Amino acid sequence: MSLKEWFEERRKISGSIEDLIERTSKDYIVNEMDKNKNIKIDFNNRLWVQCDNRENLLYMKYLRQNKSVCEECGYHLQMSSSDRIELSIDHGTWHPMDEDMAAPDPIQFHFEDEPHIDRITSCQIRTGLTDAVQTGIGRPNGIPIAIGVMDFQFMGGSMGSVVGEKITRLIEYATKQFLPVIMVCASGGARMQEGSFSLMQMAKISTALYIHQLEKKLLYVSILTYPTTGGVTASFGMLGDIIIAEPKAYIAFAGRRVIEQTLGQKVPDGLQVAEHLFDHGSFDLIVPRSLLKGVLSEPFQLYGLIPCEKERTLGLVSCNEQQFSSSAPRNESDNDTVPSHSENRKNQLQRIVPHLSFF
Fold first, then answer.
1. Does the pTM of the predicted model rise above 0.85?
2. Residues in CB range of 71: below 8 A, 6 or more apart
3. How much is the mean pLDDT over the chain?
4. Facing residues of 185 across strands?
5. Which residue segments constitute the domains of the chain, with CATH numbers given?
6. How many other C-beta atoms can be found within 10 angstroms of the C-beta atom of residue 286?
7. Could you report the per-residue pLDDT of 70-103, keeping only the tens digit for each?
8. Cβ distance 162 to 104 under 8 Å?
9. What CA–CA distance (Å, rounded) separates 105 from 101?
10. Residue 28 CB partners (closer than 8 Å, separation 6+)
11. Which of 154, 245, 167 is nearest to 202 (CA)?
């Protein structure tokens, strides 16, 4: 190569570098971003997902067949509310409630880059939900119940005014229809973008549960999944007559980082994990996802044996009461007096489930 040819090649290289710098200028980047605005990536149709525990890749098809549980380590990955409803409810028995109730922007909250209402709209498009909870009536193993399932994919499952209203309406409907209630919790807590409106939902839901549980004597089961934190833990998440957690679920009020920054102390590993909290009596059971539907059917079957408040207020005698009266043993030492209804019920339940203790 001659000296002249070498200089010409250098000029070509320099010109290419100048063109590249010009193309990557601010105006060029803005124009390219405008062109790519219409490009949408559907994350729901991805083929692989990474395990949160061991970071190994899992084939999405097999993961769904295994109820979103890692086959290698047994770690329970997050599930969408629709997948969890399909897992918990008998096919064809799901009847949703308040599907069209959409999230408002009561305090006109704005992020630095976009308004809050735009972020809600993007979550609605991405998840296909109007807000972070689905509520409705269904039948697990043929037993009618009212169920609400929170979805962490919608703004971290945060509890705003719509979430609180839907859950409250579900509980009130279940109270009128004398149905048990199941709430599947997966939330980062109250939605800060709605200010005190979100905090008011804690009291509203708790009041509805007070009427449902204490005044009407109806059953409420709370299921805590990964993660359950903040205002959900501080309200209806921990108010269940039966509280069930999934293995390795993160359950807390304040997160680890907030505690460490506030108190200046390091939080021990595993302090806010389901197994540690279970050892300290925070809830009743830790149930793997594959067994959850069967485990839930047992208390509901027992609950169905007990005459409901509606039958007693109408002055009716249920078939269960008749069965208790006819099958209960008579006490010969008390001049053949008939045992009380509570004693008959206790004896009947003890024969049905002999391994349980009734006090």
1. no
2. 58, 62
3. 79
4. 224
5. 47-77 (no CATH), 78-305 (3.90.226.10)
6. 16
7. 988 888 999 999 999 998 899 999 999 999 998 7
8. yes
9. 13
10. 22
11. 167
When comparing pLDDT for 344 and 19, which is higher?
19
Task: Quote the tokens at residue 171.
Answer: 């509980």
Q: How far is CA 81 from CA 31, 42, 152, 246, 321, in A?
A: 38, 18, 8, 15, 38
Calpha distance 178→307 (Å, rounded): 11
Q: What is the pLDDT of residues 213-234, one digit of tens each?
A: 999 999 999 999 999 999 999 9
d(CA 4, CA 6): 5
| DSSP code of residue 46 | -
Q: Is the peptide bond before 104 cis (omega within 30 degrees of 0)?
A: no
235 near 200, Cβ under 8 Å?
Answer: no
Are 130 and 162 a contacting pair, CB within 8 Å? Answer: yes
Residue 173 carries which side chain, given as an amino acid letter?
Y
CA nearest neighbour of 237 among 277, 269, 266: 277
Contact (Cβ atoms closer than 8 angstroms) between residue 163 and residue 193? no
Report the alpha-carbon distance of residue 256 to residue 153 in Å, rounded. Answer: 21
Which residue is it, tokens 């395990």? Answer: 51
Q: Which of the 8 DSSP states describes residue 174?
A: H
d(CA 194, CA 120): 12
Residue 302: exposure state from Cβ atoms within 10 A (0-12, 13-18, ≥19): middle
Q: Does the pLDDT of residue 334 top 80, yes or no?
A: no
Q: What is the pLDDT of residues 1-51, one digit of tens each?
A: 666 666 566 666 666 655 655 555 545 444 544 544 443 444 456 788 888
Q: What is the model's pLDDT at position 8?
A: 67
